[in-house]
Amino acid sequence: MDSMDQGVVESESPGNFASRLGLPFSNHFLLSRALTHRSYLNEHSEALEDNERMEFLGDAVLDFLVGAWLYNRFPEMREGELTRLRSALVRTEQLAEFASQIDLGQAMRLGRGESQTGGRSSMVLLCATFEALVGALYLDAGLGAVTCFIEPLLDTAAEQIVEDRRDQDPKSRLQEVVQAQGYGPPQYRTVSATGPEHQKIFEVEVLVDGKVTGRGMGHSKQAAAKAAAQEALKWVDLE
Q: What is the CATH number of domain 3-164?
């Protein structure tokens, strides 16, 4: 093997990926596009388009379908609770978890550098590709197919989110917990901002009593700060 190829994982083919998950794709060009990161285009002239537009579409489809599913699944739940639970189900960390559950990382079409630096396990890339996959499935097979694909994932996740209280705002929860322990309010600071202007990825860390207790990434500083707070609640023995 050429030394430049060491550490580069061969992507699972779109056809195998669809067959493994039982996804009813008839247009595998749409699926290939959904799995294609912009870094892949830089190295493969045969690839015509990356998945960023499909990510935009998938995000909108998920918002609608998750809202409709919650409305029917929890008939006694109030509007505010439904809104918080929907936010928890479509946030970056949760969509990345869904992507991991279906081993989406192995099917992502990444450039060599992106693959070598851990792109297949990147929370932000997994989330974005999951949204693009939903967008492609909607275009190819309609809302019914997306519903059949997403509902089993939602059912398990929603119960766990409610049990762990992850539907509550993590920044508010973290502040309550640390103040109950006698500390001052958590402090958030932006560590980095990378990527093009329309697709920036922010990294934020949260400090409690001057110590870094969590880091998070997202397409906005607010989303990254929430992810950092969630990480702090998960890993630091504060509760």
A: 1.10.1520.10
